[in-house]
Amino acid sequence: MKRIKHTLICNHLRKYRKARGLSQRDAARILGYVNSSRLSRWEHGTCLPKPVNMFKMAALYRTLVDALYIDMLRSIREEVQKREQQVLTDRKTSKP
């Protein structure tokens, strides 16, 4: 059986939660969850929360969603800019 390599999703959720002085359990309860298992998975980067939950955490941690996932955002921006540049370059060179 082949093992699948999982990539963890880099985030700053734990940092912002700790800065607010909240335990995972407290943050989970404030966000409306019975236990902290979901929050734990998000913090460990094994899965992404739904957008509405990202905004809830940003509100709770008094920051922007961008700050919670800044490393991912930077990586995505770099990738998009490279692709954009390639498309624009290809478009210029293919004009008659």
Write structural notes for this entry:
The protein is mostly helical. It has a domain at 13-71: Orthogonal Bundle (434 Repressor (Amino-terminal Domain)). Helices cover 62% and strands 0% of the residues. It contains 6 helices and no strands. The protein has helices spanning 13-19, 24-30, 37-44, 51-60, 65-68, 70-93. Helix 2 packs across helix 3 (37-44). The protein is elongated and about 65 Å long. The N and C termini lie far apart (53 Å).
What would you say about this model in short?
It contains 6 helices and no strands. With 96 residues, the protein is mostly helical. It has a domain of 59 residues: Orthogonal Bundle (434 Repressor (Amino-terminal Domain)), CATH 1.10.260.
What spatial form do the alpha-carbon principal axes imply? elongated
Oligomeric nature of the chains: single chain
Write down the CATH topology of the domain at 13-71.
Answer: 434 Repressor (Amino-terminal Domain)
CATH 4th-level superfamily of the domain at 13-71: lambda repressor-like DNA-binding domains
Overall mean pLDDT: 92
End-to-end separation: 53 Å
